[in-house]
Write a structure and sequence with these properties.
Largest sheet: 7 strands, mixed
Shape: globular
CATH superfamily of the largest domain: Medium-chain alcohol dehydrogenases, catalytic domain
Order of helices and strands: EEEHEEEEEEEEHEHEHEHEHEHEHHEHE
Distance between the termini: 18 Å
CATH class of the largest domain: Alpha Beta
CATH topology of the largest domain: Quinone Oxidoreductase, Chain A, domain 1
């Protein structure tokens, strides 16, 4: 089957829109015709990563409809609406590992951003994936465009607050980075009863936009010392601080802004690294850990997609997660280079999607 897809053939070069050849589904594979897919910073990192093999296919969150499936796939059927994600949906000890699929460009096997032969790509009109990355969209009355970002942005941001940090009512929260993932952290923290919710960014527009998702205080780090301001507002450090960017500098700020513990009485606050680490690595101050602060990562928001993605869709349906406001730009597949440029230049508030 030939499908129109985005292909990266040169490191850092412009993306090509061309035909991709997708093989027949194996026993555990699903073929999905796409409705929409998200545009994530992770793809920018992959486009510029010389260590990844080319040709490279991209994208890891989307919505679509099942066109065909392998004989061992039981949780979805042809005609079902589904969400695609990059985290295995129900990984347990007894769950078989995902199996490789076949897709070629000009006779060469394509790979995707996590280097394995079994993961997911979504920047294509139709895709093939192992059933482990396909989650049924059971709410048939929700739109299939804005829900395309549930499989990464929402899962990572909301999951970090729910599963990684276990935010509790009344806790003070600070979020560094008001992009799509950071806004999802803010919204989940608000839903969980956190207060105050402090957001740090370099853009006044993004700080104002974050108020729609529950942020109570904005700090423009281009004009003031964000760490000092967080320490002042929280009287010594926030209970939970999230780094939704992943730069070494922002990770250092996250740890410095987290509340220290009280010896023999209680642990310190929790610093949660949400953004994919990139750029120069942080210089960790051992004293931040010595005084009882807890530092942990949140890959994929520590989510179990079969359990958590339906909950986040339910939040949307109940008005507790305004995906229709979070998605602020729509592109066609042919405009993918424009979408990547706008994202790289910090021009997108919230999340951009490609609509097929």
């Amino acid at each position: 089957m030939k499908v129109k897809a985005v292909i990266n053939v040169d490191v850092g070069g412009p993306l090509i829109i061309d035909d991709l050849d997708i093989g027949d589904p194996g026993p555990t594979h699903v073929i999905v015709k796409q409705f929409a897919t998200g545009v994530c910073h992770s793809q920018l990192h992959q486009i510029h990563n010389p260590a990844l093999p080319r040709p490279l296919v991209l994208g890891h969150e989307s919505t679509g409809v099942v066109m065909a499936k392998g004989r061992e796939v039981t949780h979805v059927n042809e005609g079902d609406r589904v969400m695609l994600t990059w985290v295995q949906r129900d990984r347990f000890e007894h769950t078989p590992d995902p199996t490789p699929w076949r897709a070629t460009y000009q006779g060469k096997q394509v790979r995707h951003g996590d280097r394995s032969p079994t993961g997911v790509f979504t920047w294509a009109e139709t895709i093939i994936a192992d059933q482990q990355y396909v989650v049924k969209l059971t709410d048939l009355d929700v739109p299939t465009d804005v829900t395309s970002i549930v499989g990464c942005a929402v899962m990572t941001g909301c999951g970090a607050a729910v599963n990684s940090a276990h935010v509790r009512p009344g806790q003070s929260v600070a979020v560094i980075g008001a992009g799509g993932v950071g806004l999802c952290v803010i919204q989940a923290a608000y839903n969980l009863g956190a207060h105050p919710i402090i957001v740090v960014d370099l853009s006044d527009e993004k700080l104002a936009f974050a108020q729609k998702f529950g942020a109570s205080i904005g700090i423009n780090a281009s004009r003031e010392d964000a760490v000092a301001r967080i320490l002042e507002i929280t009287q010594g450090g926030a209970d939970v601080v999230f780094d939704a960017i992943g730069l070494g500098k922002t990770t250092e700020q996250m740890l410095a802004a987290t509340r220290p513990g009280v010896n023999g009485l209680k642990d310190g606050g929790t610093a949660v690294l949400v953004g994919v680490p990139h750029g120069d690595p942080p210089t960790i101050n051992p004293r931040d850990l010595f005084v009882g602060k807890i530092f942990r990562g949140a890959p994929g928001g520590s989510c179990r997609p079969d359990r958590d993605l339906p909950m986040f869709v339910r939040w949307f349906r109940e008005g507790r997660l305004p995906l229709d406001q979070l998605v602020t730009r729509r592109y066609t597949l042919d405009q993918i280079n424009d979408a990547c440029t706008a994202l790289a230049h910090g021009e997108i508030e919230g999340r951009a999607i490609v609509v097929f």
